[in-house]
Amino acid sequence: MKSIYDVLRRPLVTEKSNYMNSELHQYVFEVAPNATKAMVRDAVETLFDVNVLRVNVINVPAKRTRRIRSRRLMIRRSGYKKAIVTLSPEDTIDIFEGVK
Fold this sequence. Notes:
It is built from two helices and six strands. A hairpin with a 7-residue loop joins strand 4 (63-66) and strand 5 (74-77). By secondary structure, it is an alpha+beta fold. The chain is globular, with a radius of gyration of 16 Å. The protein has one domain (4-89): 2-Layer Sandwich (Alpha-Beta Plaits), CATH 3.30.70.
């Protein structure tokens, strides 16, 4: 990795991650395949100026799915790595918050 900007790829926004944001103070990011917990912690603390309590890293496996028009045609979605970052209760990340 060259810098902390290469660690975080994008935030993952789903119904489950929205619940985790509001109730558990946890935020979900897609991260680089070779990122470690320490690298994710440093990147989030530096970029968003928050206090990270805990980082969990999960390798999401690749999945097979079908095309919409041709139900017989199988394609493969690539796997990725995601990180669940737990912040202290007084900290928030603005990109996950709704319209203010």
